[in-house]
Specification:
Blueprint (H helix, E strand, L loop, with lengths): L17 H15 L4 E2 L12 H17 L4 H9 L9 H12 L8 E5 H13 L5 E7 L3 H9 L3 E6 L7 H13 L3 E7 L13 H14 L2 E5 L14 H4 L5 E6 L10 E5 L3 E3 L5 E3 H9 L8 H13 L4 H4 L1 H21 L4 H5 L2 E2 L7 E5 L6 H11 L1 E2 L1 E2 L12 E5 L5 H23 L1
Parallel strand pairs: 1-13, 3-4, 3-5, 5-6, 6-7
Antiparallel strand pairs: 2-8, 7-8, 9-10, 11-12, 12-15, 14-15
Helix pairs in contact: 1-15, 2-11, 5-6, 5-10, 7-8, 13-16, 15-16
């Protein structure tokens, strides 16, 4: 009997989406050249993790449950059973958001998710109801949101990000253009702080402008901001902390701040939903219904670890990240210092090489005078031993062809120094080769 054969063109179109192919290509490059220094992964630095801490965090959470009056059987079930779909640690998250961010919402407005990626998917599936609904995104944009939209057959409209972030006039123009063609802009996704991939941070004035625009144009803002607590210095207030009209759905993650392997994220969705009979609830309730058919519930063991970490810091994750934010700040400054050293003025001007200077987060971008595509990346890895990410991956409707992204989070200072020297040799030789 012949084995079954499936035609790829008869599968969902998302499996052939270039974004999925490019990320697989990047992973393949990393595995093929293990000795190369990689500025590609946006992962937390491994040096902050200690296996023994996992058990301490779980023990602390179990003690908390006992102190809360739960019986031995109830504590057992809290770890071994499925658990509530909306999550077990919502009270701890609400407390942490209030102390860390000034975001004051009840636990009932929170759903605990499998990383922020699931929070994105739930928000999109709940909000985007018809083919006339569109999602606005900053461009360049984190591929997780555009990938989720692709899986759900949601149309994405890109709004160009400027050097200082999204601008009121550009978002307003995009909203009007979509309505002119009979579409309904439903939400705008953005990473307002130390954005992935560009590293840009939105000013306080720009945040107020976007909130005013969202209220006037009747759209929601999907705020994804995982880098705030791991960035040095005072941070601009989160959009959700400024939100007075429930225009912001806050998408959260503990992957950068606490424990990436736990895969614990959350969504704050306190928007009021009214049914045809006039009954009201919250948007988070509708997202929780969707979650029940996607992941059923979030790992109770993962929640226990994160819950224990939150308890250890009395909800103040900023206190847990004093060392990490200093480390990443030093790493960013090291990359910028090394770039200035290998590309002094006026050489960088003559070559046409430029880079931005983020104040925090994991990423910065470098403009180069040649096409920074997969072919260039492969040469860089094979011949020069350095890996980066093409920025073209992050432009939903094209762009970024002459720009690359560097991640500063996963490397030591010595690796950064060596890696930037390798990168400089590659850029200079590639520029010379293209000019012949």
């Amino acid at each position: 009997m012949a084995a079954s054969r499936l035609l790829k063109e008869e599968l969902h179109a998302s499996v052939s989406d270039p974004v999925l192919d490019t990320m697989n290509f990047l992973n393949g490059i990393t595995h093929r050249y293990p000795e190369a220094i990689s500025f590609a992964p946006g992962r937390p630095y491994d040096g902050f993790f200690d296996v023994q801490q996992i058990f301490e965090h779980i023990r602390r959470y179990l003690d908390h449950l006992a102190e809360s009056g739960l019986s031995a059987g109830e504590i057992r079930d809290a770890l071994f059973q499925y658990g509530p779909t909306n999550g077990q640690i919502r009270e701890l998250i609400a407390d942490s958001l209030r102390k860390d961010e000034g975001i004051d919402v009840p636990p009932e407005a929170i759903v605990v998710t499998v990383g922020c990626q699931e929070a994105m998917l739930l928000a999109l599936r709940a909000l985007i109801a018809t083919r006339d609904d569109v999602l606005l995104v900053a461009s360049p944009c984190y591929v997780g949101i555009t990938g989720a939209a692709r899986l759900l057959d949601i149309e994405v409209t890109a709004v160009e990000e400027q050097a200082d972030g999204l601008r009121y006039a550009d978002v307003e123009a995009a909203i009007k253009a979509e309505r002119a063609r009979g579409k309904r802009p439903r939400a705008l996704y953005l990473v307002p702080d130390h954005s992935n991939p560009s590293g840009v941070t939105l000013s306080l004035a720009a945040r107020h402008e976007l909130l005013e625009l969202a209220a006037r144009e009747d759209i929601l803002l999907l705020e994804d901001s995982p880098y705030r607590m791991v960035s040095p210095g005072p941070q601009v207030p989160a959009l959700k902390s400024l939100d007075r009209e429930r225009r912001v759905v806050h998408l959260g993650s503990y992957s950068k701040t606490l424990f990436p392997g736990a895969r614990i994220g959350f969504a704050v969705a306190d928007q009021i939903v009214v049914d045809r009979d006039g009954r009201t609830g919250l948007l988070v309730d509708e997202m929780t219904k969707i979650k029940s058919m996607v992941t059923v519930n979030t790992s109770t063991l993962g929640q226990a670890v994160v819950g224990g970490m939150l308890l250890a810091a009395d909800g103040r994750t900023a206190d847990l990240n004093v060392e990490t934010s200093r480390y990443y700040g030093d790493a960013m400054r090291a990359v910028l210092r090394e770039l200035a050293g290998v590309f002094p003025e006026p050489e960088r001007t003559a070559l046409g090489v430029r880079w931005n200077q983020p104040t925090g987060g994991f990423f910065l971008t470098v403009d180069v005078p040649f096409r920074a595509d997969n072919s260039a990346l492969e040469r860089s890895a094979e011949e020069f031993g350095v890996i980066w990410t093409p920025m073209s991956y992050f432009y939903p409707q094209g762009g970024g062809d002459n720009t690359l992204r560097l991640s500063i989070s996963y490397l030591t200072q010595s690796e950064i120094s060596d890696g930037i020297k390798r990168l400089a040799r590659f850029i200079k030789e590639e520029t010379a080769a293209r000019s012949e």
